TrEMBL record:
PANTHER family: LEUCINE-SPECIFIC-BINDING PROTEIN, PERIPLASMIC BINDING PROTEIN OF ABC TRANSPORTER FOR NATURAL AMINO ACIDS
Domain of life: Bacteria
Gene3D superfamilies: 3.40.50.2300
First and last residue of the signal peptide: 1-24
Protein name: Branched-chain amino acid transport system substrate-binding protein
Gene Ontology BP terms: amino acid transport
Keyword entries, A-Z: Amino-acid transport, Signal, Transport
Protein family membership: Belongs to the leucine-binding protein family.
Domain Leucine-binding protein: 26-338
Pfam family of the protein (one): Peripla_BP_6
The species this protein was found in: Marinospirillum alkaliphilum DSM 21637
InterPro entries in alphabetical order: BCAA_transport, Leu-bd, Leu_Ile_Val-bd, Peripla_BP_I
Length: 402
């Protein structure tokens, strides 16, 4: 009798443990540059992903009521070893199903090659813009909800020509991001009749860029373009360029689109500086996201926050479509939930999406930052907007059309 009682207790305990295992959290990780050259931008990007997480959990969670949790890892943005280690922890210790991130291109490439791709883990980056991501041998595992810098570089060139700026000098941070963006800009700008007199590389995290600036200023060109990051070399280059008095106009890119730049160098230095960054098209999802972001307490126009929302929401939809938290088959599910045809799902419409998926219906997510019809390389077409520093604030001026 005692043996039967013990056996019954054992089976009951096993049943409870099995039920708990079935209800385990679904993990989708977030890899970001919480320290390093974009540390002032990362909190808002993370907040965008967290907003998607909160919408999903408030509307029933994933896979029959399981909670969506989001462990984080710091890539530092600039250190490939740190990025690889953070991704390895996500993939092999946290056992995430997928990853939102990374943010900087070098971190995404290192994370993908050294951890995610070997383990079959899908990554969707909301911020890695360099063309090098397009050519990754990734087994269809790496996507991005932000357009390539091949597009942003073209947009910046067209913007300057439209403003009558026909002659520039510039400097770029010597990595995949800076190099790819500067190269695309130079090709397009030259083809449009502009003259990129000289654009030179610089190494990140140095205290002094006066030699590079001295060589550029010798050309007598008044417009300086800075392809760099606001929290590292970008602010130092800008400060020292202003101190030199050699330039009267400054131009930046998305890596410089941070109000922390104002705090670092002063409103007077950045006043009138223009830049480009990926933006959101005029779709219903953009307005929905903006309202929800304000309720959540962060700026909906913060660079890459809308793209992070979409990355997290798409991955969650793909898990639901896949029917489990398994890694296998997730990339096909990403394409299925984000592409036409199918009933449109807008940001926040998680209950509707779950109901349609359960009924075997096709869905098409139309997001906060775009439609996200991924091409064969996991890239999207997107929107680039002009921004300007005015009275110590970043102001969006409108879409760059070309």
């Amino acid at each position: 009798m005692m043996k039967k009682t013990l056996l019954g207790m054992t089976l009951a305990a096993a049943s409870v443990m099995g039920a708990a295992a079935l209800q385990a959290d679904v993990k989708i990780g977030f890899l970001g540059g919480f320290t390093g050259p974009i540390e002032s931008m990362t909190p808002a990007i993370h907040a965008g992903a967290q907003l998607a997480q909160s919408h999903i959990n408030a509307q029933g969670g994933l896979l029959n009521g399981r909670q969506f949790v989001m462990p984080t890892g710091d890539t530092t943005c600039a250190d490939a070893s740190a990025a690889s280690n953070a991704a390895d922890r996500m993939v092999n210790t946290e056992r995430v199903t997928a990853i939102v991130g990374a943010l900087c291109t070098g971190a995404t490439i290192a994370s993908a090659n050294n951890a995610a791709i070997p383990a079959g883990v899908v990554m969707i980056s909301p911020a890695s813009t360099a063309p090098a991501v397009t050519t990754l041998n990734d087994n269809d595992l790496v996507f991005r909800t932000v357009p390539s810098d091949a597009f942003q570089g073209q947009a910046l060139a067209h913007l300057l020509i439209s403003k009558g700026i026909k002659e520039v000098v510039g400097t770029y941070v010597n990595n995949d991001y800076g190099r790819g963006l500067a190269d695309q800009f130079r090709r397009t700008y030259t083809a449009l009749g502009g003259e990129a007199v000289e654009i030179v590389a610089h190494e990140d995290n140095r205290a002094d860029y006066r030699s590079e600036l001295g060589a550029l200023s010798a050309h007598g060109v008044d417009t300086l373009i800075i392809f760099a990051y606001a929290d590292s070399s970008g602010q130092t280059v800008l400060r020292q360029a202003h101190e030199s008095g050699a330039f009267s106009r400054y131009v930046g890119v998305d890596g410089m689109a941070s109000e922390n730049l104002v705090r670092a160098v002063g409103a007077r230095v950045v006043e009138g500086m223009i830049a480009t960054r990926p933006g959101s098209p005029k779709l219903p999802g953009a307005d929905i996201f903006a309202a929800e972001a304000r309720k959540a307490g962060f700026d909906p126009s913060a660079v890459f926050s809308a793209q992070a929302y979409d990355a997290a929401f798409i991955l969650a939809l793909a898990v639901e479509k896949n029917g489990s938290d398994a890694r296998q088959g997730l990339s096909q599910a990403v394409r299925a939930v984000s592409s036409a045809p199918g009933e449109v799902i807008l940001p926040g419409e998680w209950e509707k999406a779950k109901r349609l998926i359960a009924a075997g219906k096709d869905i098409n997510y139309e997001g906060a930052a775009g439609s996200h019809e991924f091409d064969a390389n996991g890239d999207i077409q997107g929107v680039v907007v002009e921004i300007a520093f005015e009275n110590g604030r970043l102001v969006t001026k409108g879409e760059v059309k070309f």
